[in-house]
């Protein structure tokens, strides 16, 4: 699950970069961009939730990281709404706000280092990064190399215009917009369409677009009955379109996302405790709702929670 762009984040995540501002995407090698845990809305992004150091949790951080005062984070962008750059070039997103709050709880300053996705886990193994933050699916295969702290569930989610009444499990004869080359176009919708025709019903009309923004607009404008995309992408589209879209059914084919750390590192327990604290204070939910991805929230983080 490393390598080409189509596989970059896992089974459910494909080519979601279309929301990012194209003028702010230039990057070469590794770069550093830090962010605080609080602040006001800038460049159209939601305000960051505030978090403060919790000594009891901060004291669990490995000494080498604690003494440096920084949490070095490998990240691959763009992948909105989780991690991307705003028009000023600052790294923003759901993952970023959450990691900023985690770092604040641990009494550390986040140091984001841009990297090729496939290089993040090897760099964690080699000690270049303390943790990875790029919408990683926690898989049993990856758990052979690193440990994961789960923080989110992601899958596929449909959206429709309000009141349309689309059923993702019975969309025979409907027009469904999708971004080309995604799992939804190549696997999900063809299988569902075949089930329709096998039962003697009309097929699903799959309407592919080069970019997710165009697929979303097709639904908003009534050119398609519904859209299918990765759950955070769909949730973000619903939030951005402010009443013009609503969920059609629930998230399905879900899998946990996690932060990778070195195998056996006590940092995993530190991250887990920090996230549990943010859940207890409501900060986790606040951040998820700010970015419109609350449907993927989990109740309890675990270390190595892969389902496949």
From TrEMBL:
Record's keyword annotation contains Transport:
no
Q: Where in the cell is it found?
A: Cell envelope
Matches recorded under SUPFAM superfamilies = Periplasmic binding protein-like II
Its main subcellular localisation, reduced to a broad class, is other
Concerning SMART domains, the annotation shows: PBPb (SM00062)
Q: Which UniProt keywords apply?
A: Signal
Span of the secretion signal? 1-26
All copies of the Solute-binding protein family 3/N-terminal domain together span: 70-295
Q: Which GO terms describe its cellular component?
A: cell envelope
Region labeled Disordered — which residues? 33-53
Q: What InterPro entries does this protein map onto?
A: SBP_3_CS, Solute-binding_3/MltF_N
Q: Which PANTHER family match?
A: ARGININE-BINDING EXTRACELLULAR PROTEIN ARTP, MEMBRANE-BOUND LYTIC MUREIN TRANSGLYCOSYLASE F
Write out the similarity annotation. Answer: Belongs to the bacterial solute-binding protein 3 family.
Q: What is this protein called?
A: ABC transporter substrate-binding protein
Organism the protein comes from: Mycolicibacterium flavescens (Mycobacterium flavescens)
